[in-house]
């Protein structure tokens, strides 16, 4: 039987809530389900304010607007990440200064950030790879010292923590994804988390096409109009209804994913101890939200062989990011620095199947096919 890399998990309530949204007759954004989802995050994790968006990319674009990025401003982003972490700031005219990953895991190496700061630096974008926290105390300390803003790319980091603090609540702003490859999904979808009071009002205006429509509907002003830049960043209520069904099942989904993750870890540990590959690294300050199970092979050739071996067993394992600093779009703009750790993860990291419907017996089959 074929084992895919990912399958979107349905809790069973999605169609029911979507039906409700449709027949309640309010289909545009910022309705009952949108507010319910936003309140869920605000109350469970302590965000100052949350706004659902149509994607994490959109949430990052909102963050770039809120940070006031102007052409020529510099933004520090790890090179080992998804395109959107950089693209959202490039759209606002920023120059991206790519940072290398750590040796121990693919997250940004906080110790190398300070050397990248110039008078034009505005923002640092830590990406919590695989839902495992970056060293946020160190990053916030650097940001404070140099008067920079921090936007957490928490696309993969739902329900994960740094020293007991929920990821996405530490930086000034944060962005989450509900793309169908993430733990909690709505097909396409995302959310902006706002932790700094200064950004709350303006975020709502940018979200609603540059108007103060949200304030108007709360009865705080008696007419609404154009006050700022913005775009249409709201998902429809149909999408929010789908998301609500997922959020209701968050604990169940996380428990199941963690049981699969732990099984992988336990079964692959003996081979890792023999030096066949490295297992995921979770620092003491971080938790694991079982977004992903990855291995780091010793070379590109070993990774290619491993992916092939699994494919011969009808199992789909996939590599991950190609270094953004040497991408077709950015290589001519990059300042030429070598980022060896990033390149190593691009060559050697492989992700194993991870989704709710995967069984513990499937994990056993996947691990057995290495031998
Ligand atoms: C998935 C992902 C994104 C993009 O999310 P979308 O919702 O598809 O826009 C951005 N950054 C990281 C790190 C991601 O994993």
Question: Please, could you describe this protein's structure?
Answer:
It is a single chain. This protein is α/β, with parallel strands linked by helices. The chain has 2 domains: about 15-250, 3-Layer(aba) Sandwich (Aspartate Aminotransferase, domain 2); about 250-370, Aspartate Aminotransferase, domain 1 (Alpha-Beta Complex). Helices cover about 35% and strands about 15% of the residues. The protein contains 12 helices and 13 strands. The protein has helices at about 15-25, 30-45, 55-65, 85-90, 135-145, 200-205, 215, 235-250, 250-275, 300-310, 340-350, 360-370, and strands at about 50-55, 75-80, 95-100, 120-125, 150-155, 160, 165, 175, 190-195, 275-280, 295, 320, 350. The protein has a 7-stranded mixed β-sheet with strand order 1-9-8-5-4-2-3, sandwiched between helices. It has a 4-stranded antiparallel β-sheet with strand order 10-11-13-12. Helix 2 packs parallel to helix 8, helix 3 runs parallel beside helix 4 (about 85-90) and helix 9 (about 250-275) runs parallel beside helix 12 (about 360-370). It is globular and about 70 Å long. The mean pLDDT is about 95. It binds pyridoxal-5'-phosphate.
């Amino acid at each position: 039987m074929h084992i895919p890399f990912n399958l979107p998990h349905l809790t069973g309530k999605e169609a029911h809530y979507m039906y409700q949204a449709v027949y309640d007759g309010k289909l545009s954004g910022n309705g009952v389900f949108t507010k319910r989802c936003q309140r869920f995050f605000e109350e469970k994790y302590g965000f100052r304010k949350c706004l659902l968006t149509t994607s994490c990319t959109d949430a990052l674009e909102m963050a770039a607007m809120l940070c006031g990025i102007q052409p020529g401003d510099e933004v520090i982003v790890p090179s080992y990440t998804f395109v959107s972490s950089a693209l959202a700031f490039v759209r606002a005219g920023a120059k991206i200064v790519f940072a290398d990953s750590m040796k121990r895991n693919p997250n940004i190496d906080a110790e190398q950030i300070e050397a990248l700061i110039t008078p034009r630096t505005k923002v640092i974008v830590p990406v919590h790879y695989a839902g495992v926290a970056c060293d946020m105390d160190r990053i916030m300390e650097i940001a404070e010292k140099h008067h920079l803003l921090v936007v957490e790319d928490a696309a993969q980091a739902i329900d994960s923590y740094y020293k007991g603090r929920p990821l996405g609540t530490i930086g000034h702003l944060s962005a989450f994804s509900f793309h169908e490859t993430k733990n909690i999904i709505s097909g396409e979808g995302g959310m902006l988390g706002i932790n700094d009071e200064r950004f709350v009002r303006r975020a709502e205006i940018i979200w609603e096409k540059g108007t103060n429509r949200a304030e108007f509907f709360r009865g705080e002003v008696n007419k609404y109009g154009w006050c700022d830049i913005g775009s249409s960043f709201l998902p429809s209520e149909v999408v929010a209804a789908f998301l609500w069904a997922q959020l209701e099942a968050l604990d169940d989904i996380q428990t199941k994913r963690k049981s699969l993750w732990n099984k992988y870890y336990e079964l692959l540990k003996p081979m890792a101890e023999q030096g066949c590959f490295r297992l995921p690294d979770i620092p003491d300050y971080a938790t694991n939200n079982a977004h992903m199970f990855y291995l780091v092979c010793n070379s590109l050739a070993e990774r290619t062989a491993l992916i092939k071996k699994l494919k011969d067993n009808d199992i789909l394992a996939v590599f991950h990011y190609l270094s953004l600093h040497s991408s077709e779009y950015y290589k001519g703009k990059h300042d030429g620095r070598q980022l060896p750790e990033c390149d190593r993860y691009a060559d050697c990291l492989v992700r194993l199947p991870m989704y709710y419907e995967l069984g513990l017996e499937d994990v056993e089959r996947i691990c057995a096919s290495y031998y």
